[in-house]
From TrEMBL:
Signal peptide: none annotated. This is DUF4229 domain-containing protein. It comes from the Bacteria. InterPro entries: DUF4229. It holds the Pfam family DUF4229. Residues 83-106 are annotated as: Disordered. Residues 86-106 have a biased composition (Basic and acidic residues). Keywords: Membrane, Transmembrane, Transmembrane helix.
Length: 106
């Protein structure tokens, strides 16, 4: 249902913007469609985050109902490497959320 609601919001938004650009501004159908598509994207990206996340969850559940994680294989391997490093060297700290204080050669 979340996917349907999100699609309906975006469709109505596109239609409203298209009709406004076509009839009120007098643009060609192609220009009105391009402006409506871009406008619907921007508005839905900014204001419809909760609905977009719900629609994404529905799609993820439908595509992989038995998945235990949403992380990629590379991300899981990286996390496993960090865990083994910490287990073997308790004095080492891994904090991936903060940028490194050392500069790398460019």
């Amino acid at each position: 249902m979340a996917f349907f609601k999100y699609s309906l919001f975006r469709g109505v938004l596109f239609l409203a913007l298209f009709l406004g650009a076509y009839y009120l501004l007098g643009l060609s159908p192609l220009a009105a469609a391009l402006i409506a598509a871009f406008g619907a994207f921007v508005v839905s990206f900014i204001f419809l985050r909760k609905q977009r996340d719900g629609a994404t969850a529905v799609i993820a559940e439908r595509m992989a109902p038995n998945a235990t994680t949403t992380q990629s294989t590379g991300a899981l391997a990286d996390a496993e490497a960090e865990d083994s490093l910490i287990d073997s060297h308790p004095d080492v700290q891994v904090d991936a959320d903060r940028p490194s204080k050392t500069r790398t050669a460019e």
